[in-house]
Design a protein that fits this description.
The chain is of the alpha/beta class. Helix content is about 50%, strand content about 10%. The protein contains 13 helices and seven strands. The chain has helices at about 5-10, 15-25, 30-40, 60-75, 100, 105, 130-140, 175-180, 200-215, 245-260, 260-285, 290-305, 310-325, and strands at about 50-55, 80-85, 110-120, 145-150, 165-170, 190-195, 230-235. It has a seven-stranded parallel sheet with strand order 3-2-4-1-5-6-7, with helices on both faces. Helix 1 packs across helix 3 (about 30-40), helix 2 crosses helix 3 and helix 2 (about 15-25) runs antiparallel to helix 7. The longest helix has 24 residues, at about 260-285. The chain is globular, with a radius of gyration of 22 Å. The protein starts with a helix and ends with a helix.
Length: about 325
């Protein structure tokens, strides 16, 4: 693989090169992982996009919101990349990857790039290599990167570790859904956007916005927030009302964080987090070797038969892994 040529294509903003690079970094093959590391090292680090994480309850209209929001940004001359994570089947391992079909207008926009990816077995609402895909989009010169998670849930707070701002999308009268995910995801949200504020649901959306505005005031104030944040807004992605207000609120928040040093601090903390995650993944990968699988199976059988203590067998397995690495 011509890594230098691929890197030059990405830097030049070539969509085909970017798509090939994302496929490369998503691969689990050892030779592809080595090539991906070489590619990432060859890319500039001075290009930074605004990373916006976005999640929401099923049926809330995430794709419609992203399409309308993305079209508004491209109309302003900005380049927008959408990284949409699709849930994978626990039985077949397959994913529909239908987000580009739902975003018909945005997928045909020259200043936009949409890449659906399978979640595979990775928890947290994002794909395992989503952060590297974000880095590729930044190197390709995109101004805004939208990271759409699988759906809503407490485990999906991982998206906050790769975004500069996190938007939680909810439907009118969606209090039960938010209550179901408890405070985990609400505490990391920078904006709560009530979608479908149109037609018969317009007044309901206004009441829901007021309810969440009150609920947000009960949360402990975070040091990375200016006065008035987190904030609840009501929008209609279908009628394209409130999108400008949402973008203005995001810009105000990000500008304040830049001016007060939180942007650089957060980016540094995120880099540390993903370094530690990669170390853990590499350690876990050592368990996938044929020898390690045989040892694990043998010790598991012994534990199941009661001839070995679980803690003692685990310690023996770890010692064997260490000796294999010497």
């Amino acid at each position: 693989m011509d890594i230098d040529g691929l890197a030059k294509g990405i830097i030049a903003g070539e969509r085909r090169a970017l798509a090939r690079a994302i496929t490369l970094v998503e691969s689990g093959r050892a030779d592809h992982r080595a090539a991906a590391a070489e590619l990432l090292a060859a890319l500039p680090t001075d290009r930074q996009a605004l990373r916006i994480g976005l999640s929401g309850t099923p049926g809330v209209g995430k794709s419609t919101f992203i399409e309308s929001f993305g079209m508004m940004l491209t109309a302003q001359g900005k380049r927008v990349a959408v990284l949409a994570v699709d849930p994978s089947s626990t039985r077949s391992g397959g994913s529909i990857l239908g987000d580009k079909t739902r975003m018909d207008r945005l997928s045909r926009e020259p200043r936009a790039f949409i890449r659906p990816s399978p979640s595979q077995t990775h928890l947290g609402g994002v794909a395992r290599r989503s952060r590297e895909a974000v880095r590729l989009c930044e190197a390709a010169g995109f101004d805004v990167v939208l990271i759409e998670t699988v759906g809503v849930g407490q485990s999906e707070t991982v998206v906050a570790e790769m975004s500069d701002a996190f938007v939680l999308l909810l439907a009118p009268a969606g209090g039960d859904e938010l209550q179901g995910v408890k405070r985990g995801i609400m505490e990391i949200a920078d904006l709560i956007v009530i979608n479908k504020a149109d037609g018969e649901l317009k007044s309901t959306a206004a009441r829901t916005r007021a309810d969440y505005s009150g609920a947000l005031r009960l949360l402990r104030k975070r040091p990375q927030d200016p006065e008035g944040y987190p904030r609840a807004l009501a929008v209609s992605a279908q009628e394209e009302h409130g999108l400008d207000e949402t973008w203005a609120a995001l810009q105000e928040l990000v500008d304040w964080r830049r001016e007060n040093g939180f942007w650089d601090h957060t980016r540094a903390a995120q880099a540390r987090y993903w370094f530690e995650q990669d170390v853990k993944q590499r350690l876990l990968a050592q368990m996938e070797t044929p020898q390690a699988k045989d040892d694990l199976s043998r010790l598991s059988d012994a534990v199941a038969q009661g001839t070995r203590d679980p803690a003692e067998a685990a310690a023996a397995f770890v010692r064997r892994l260490r000796s294999d690495q010497v």
